[in-house]
Amino acid sequence: MARQKLMVGTYGEISCFKLKSGTWHARARCCDVDGVVRQYRKNGETKNKARANLKAFFVEHTGTFGDGALAPDNTVQDLLDLWFEKMEKAEGGPSAETLGYYRSHVRWVLDRDKTEQPLGAYQLRHVRPVIIQAALDSAGVSPDLRKRIRSVLVRAFNMAIFHEAINGNPATAVPSVPVPRNKKKPVPVKDLDAVRVAIREWASAEKRNGPKSVDLPDIVEMLIATGMRIGELLALRWSDIELTPPPERRDHEGWFPWLMVNGQITSKGKRVDYGKTHAAIRPIALPDWAAALLRRRKVAQTPNDLDAVFITRNGTWHFPTIVQGRLRHIRLLDDYADLAALQDVSPHSFRRTVATEIDEVYDAEAAMNQLGHTSKAVTERHYINRRLVVPDYRAATDRLAPGPETSDGPTPGL
């Protein structure tokens, strides 16, 4: 008699036998979702336990395991390792620096020293939204970091779905915590000179002990002149700048000094030939005062092997984090406690100042181009601090005034 054909998702008769080791072995055939019948086995200390283990497996079994890259019994750590490996090789994927940030983010839910409910050892089949939420809650991270961790997990679990290791994404069901929308303000133009003086005083060691920080004032001036990201500015080379017209344009009245943003310095101090976005590689016109600063600097600077405009005493690129840390130190000094404009100053503060001024003189699209954004909405939402302007449309609304016959008395306010 022919063996009865199994329906998809069902299993046949379970047979059990005792092994030489004394444990029991249970096995049965199961028809997976791809229509292929496969045999599965489970062991147990007794016959009933072996049978129960096999039945429990069939309850959680999701069918075929796709291309074999991931399976339900792989751990969350396995999943993230594979996801990062694929992201490193993906064309047009996140940069190495961005992936480094992602790795540092997810450690908050993987490492036992950061959360009481680490996710790393959980098998994919056992991960539920409440388990992820417990790991996040136990880590005690900020709403912004929680949002970033959840985003990485969503993308990683989506890959697990693609490889048929799970049927649904448990991370998408984890409630997201609203991130406070505190729009950071630019440095007001009227306060720029006071901020400049404070930075120069600190850099010249007038307000502290220790060596001078000779580059910091010029770095700040160039941030104000261009609105560049700090990593972009520190990656600037003399070959990226045109301070004098080339021979073919020497008599051209429309020539002006300019530079080309051609890369960035990562948080680890390495220069790379790409930007944060595809719009980051861009030309920027230089105001005359910034061009004069660069000419003066080029004459005074000893040529270096990196062709760097800003270089450390050791002949290396400046770290963006070092510059950020120096500005943070200055604004915490008691000497400048009364200078309100300095209290929130960071390299990005000057970027917002530039965006706001360009928006006022030109428009938001011009600010977007200067800053190297891919979307005008990003520029408007996060960088431009527009003054309140009350539009005067009364010529239209005055025509809607009630007629004399509808007026019951004197006009209010007259």
UniProtKB/TrEMBL annotation:
Taxonomy of origin reads:
Bacteria, Bacillati, Actinomycetota, Actinomycetes, Propionibacteriales
Give me the ranges of the annotated region Disordered.
395-414
Q: Which family does it belong to?
A: Belongs to the 'phage' integrase family.
Tell me the SUPFAM superfamilies matching this sequence. Answer: DNA breaking-rejoining enzymes (SSF56349)
Its signal peptide is: none
Q: Where is the Tyr recombinase domain?
A: 182-398
GO BP of this protein? DNA integration; DNA recombination
In which organism is this protein found? Answer: Nocardioides oleivorans
Q: Mind telling me which InterPro entries this protein's record contains?
A: DNA_brk_join_enz, Integrase-like_cat_sf, Integrase_catalytic, Integrase_recombinase_N, Tyrosine_recombinase_XerCD
One Pfam family from the UniProt entry?
Phage_integrase
Identify a single GO molecular function assigned to this protein: DNA binding
Q: PANTHER family from the entry?
A: INTEGRASE_RECOMBINASE PROTEIN MJ0367-RELATED, PHAGE INTEGRASE-RELATED
Where do transmembrane segments lie in this chain?
A: none
Q: Which UniProt keywords apply?
A: DNA recombination, DNA-binding
UniProt name for this protein = Tyr recombinase domain-containing protein
